[in-house]
């Protein structure tokens, strides 16, 4: 009887080891897909120009909308030229006006920091992805067997944050990126969700980014559209 139990235990252990090895192999393969897409798209996107539209909502009300033409200069840096936006509201006078102006300035500062925070995660850095994977800060979620996988990367930019990448394993492309982080105070949690899309030459880009800061009742939506080959830079 003991021999039977021992044999069953060994079979169970072997099965566990096999499942673990398969999971590790899947993580390694998915990390490679993510890195390859990020590296290739980073270079390909420099050949394009597009329109970026940033819309800000406070307490559910649209407060501003800004559009910019985006392209890469000869120095390889991203250039954004503002092309339009909503008209600023008229300022109120007197003490109430000053209080309102101060609140508006504080909110504008917070929104600016939020937009800058988004930029620290997009696009994700392939080297950071590799370092977190090597450091064991990666977990796997199978959303659809052999089709859709999500990898979580802990402490991507700062302690306690998280970056998740959803992959289409069949087409080997990024579908979405989700981030859980904070601006100044760790208690001031913000989340943003990025929907990725793919151009005909397989260049991947963040089509829509939505940031939600519940504590401040702020929502920021950034859309990228109208991609076309950029004019030659002189």
Automatic annotation (TrEMBL):
Sorted UniProt keywords: Signal
Where does the UniProt annotation place the signal sequence?
1-21
| Name of the protein described by the UniProt record | Outer membrane lipoprotein carrier protein LolA
**What species does this protein belong to?**
Niastella koreensis
